[in-house]
Amino acid sequence: MTPETLRTLLGGVPENGWFAEAEARVRADPDAIGQLFARAGRMLGRRQLPDHPAWTAGQAGRVLLLLAIAAEQREVRVAELYWRGDPAERLAVLHALEHLTLGEAGVPLIEDALRTNDKRLVAAALGPCAALLDAAVWRQGVVKCVFMEVPLSVVDRLGERADQPLAEMLGGLARERAAAGRRMPADALALLNRRSLAKGFKAEEG
Amino acid sequence: MRVFDPHIHMTSRTTDDYRRMAAAGVRSVVEPAFWLGQPRTNPGSFGDYFDSLLGWEPYRASQYGVRHHATLALNPKEANDPRCKGVLDLLPHYLEKDGVVAVGEIGYDSMTPAEDEAFAAQLDLAREFGLPALVHTPHRDKAAGTRRTLDVVAASGIEPGRVAVDHLNEVTVAAVKDSGCWTGFSIYPETKMSPPRMVSILQEYGIERVLVNSAADWGHSDPLLTVATGQAMLDAGFSADDVDRVLWRNPIEFYAQSGRLDLSELPEPEATFAGSSVKRGGS
């Protein structure tokens, strides 16, 4: 979701006036964001946005408030808001990361989200912000999704990033599941089959 | 029967409890921050605990279709340890969070000067953050503790209708009722209050401004005693609407004063109740 789209969606909610004022305050004084970031959830609304069920106005507002922090202050402020945030606030940080251009400074936050047992945070950590993760951490995240029954459709650029080590991890899991008489989720099996086919094709070519 | 348990320490309970509660009609709970049995020795321990009450525990509850909110505070018992005083400085940050619907449990344990100070300071925080207050009354010297509690509440200037005074019994209910504060009752297997005694109190004092909770925690307690009390009310001739008022609408009326109570429909619980993120080995 681009900031422009979020701004358009937010323009349609009745509490948009509160947001405009909050955003101006953050632009003028980054210290103001602590309180406003927490309040945005209830001030802007916690119900799903029409046509965008994954988003609430509150979450859209939070992402835009993060983008209103002056660039040179972002690294410190965003990390602080993540570590001191509740799950919804942490989700907003993860969703904003791809637009915040923090680079490596975002990695510890994403890795923390991947260590949680909260499906929402794990899913967000594998969204576009996961571009910052190295391959080993990213693969662990994908396999964790399979364990947590998080659909693999949440993983950004899955087809592009899925590699042989990931296929081997999934293959191992599939054998464990088969031994236990338990099923693999269909999306994981499909990914595994695609990788196996690609490998077979390459072997034939070679 | 739909039930809102306005005081229960789910952190100390198992997923089996969540399953049984949801099956019996408990759809919403409020978990007050309290003493964990083992003393904490620094504010950081409280910060992690508050994070858990706003993060992991509501998530765990949601797996069973139960809505979870919290009340946060430095509890009276640990207010006596000077190493924990810094918790009062953490609170303004946490009291802004969406999941917080009151300041609590505050009040008295042994009625010491340190408890006086923490109690008054946190009633001020409740006013400052527009939150109701959940007040614990002491186990020992309860009648005197309750009187002193009401004096402190009156002196603080907080509106009595925004204060719930909890763990009441036959001896302490009248004074709290007269003060205009909400009357809270913790139904326990053997001690504080039982379902039949609760029914007698409701018959004598009415069903307005009454909160019935299980206060279930790590001690001998039962998260289904709210439901048992509803059944005892029906058996004694109260209507289903009276039960709904006491066990559902009253706690909503009290905590909705925070402006933060969110009872919008929860997503459907997981098809298998033990969703893998709650199962061990999920990660």
UniProtKB/TrEMBL annotation, chain A:
Highest taxon above the source species: Bacteria
Source organism phylogeny: Bacteria, Bacillati, Actinomycetota, Actinomycetes, Micromonosporales
UniProt cross-references to InterPro entries, sorted A to Z: EboA_dom (IPR047715)
Protein name: Sugar phosphate isomerase
From TrEMBL, chain B:
Keywords of this entry: Hydrolase, Metal-binding
SUPFAM superfamilies registered for this protein in UniProt: Metallo-dependent hydrolases
Signal peptide per UniProt: none
MF terms in GO: hydrolase activity, acting on ester bonds; metal ion binding
Family per similarity comment: Belongs to the metallo-dependent hydrolases superfamily.
PANTHER family associated with the record: HYDROLASE TATD
Protein name, entry field: TatD family hydrolase
Species of origin: Winogradskya consettensis
